[in-house]
Amino acid sequence: MKAICIGFTLSLMLTLVQKGLCFDEGGANIEHQWSEGFIGKFSITPGPTLSNGWNMIVTFSQPIKILEVWQAKIQMQNKQNTVFVLENQSWNTLLEEGKKFEFNFKATKRGRGNPHVVEVAVGRTEHLKGLSC
């Protein structure tokens, strides 16, 4: 497992470090872009740490107007709409260790340019309870 620092606000990053929080790496692939948005897939290859719920922290290079995901809930996002914390749905809390789990997303852009996913990290749900962006 590799520890990853995420581009949250400084106070949230310090809270994560103080809690000794480690994340498994996740991934993202943008499959198609158009002038107003893009679609893609997030992926998780869970280790033993994801046996009872999970969160995925996704950092985009530019603000996202709307992020739609169907196999996760958006738990929180920062004020700039560049960092989103996704949480498992009730029916996909348990992920099989070592088996890749992928799910689709759709994003609506805010402004011009082609945003991309800068970083994805995955951790256990209880580590992020009560934190805010």
TrEMBL record:
InterPro entries: CBD2, CBM2/CBM3_carb-bd_dom_sf, CBM2_carb-bd_dom_sf. SUPFAM superfamilies: Carbohydrate-binding domain. One of its GO terms (biological process) is carbohydrate metabolic process. Pfam families: CBM_2. Keywords: Signal. The keyword Signal applies. Residues 30-120 form the CBM2 domain. GO terms for molecular function: hydrolase activity, hydrolyzing O-glycosyl compounds; polysaccharide binding. This is CBM2 domain-containing protein. It comes from Pocillopora damicornis (Cauliflower coral).
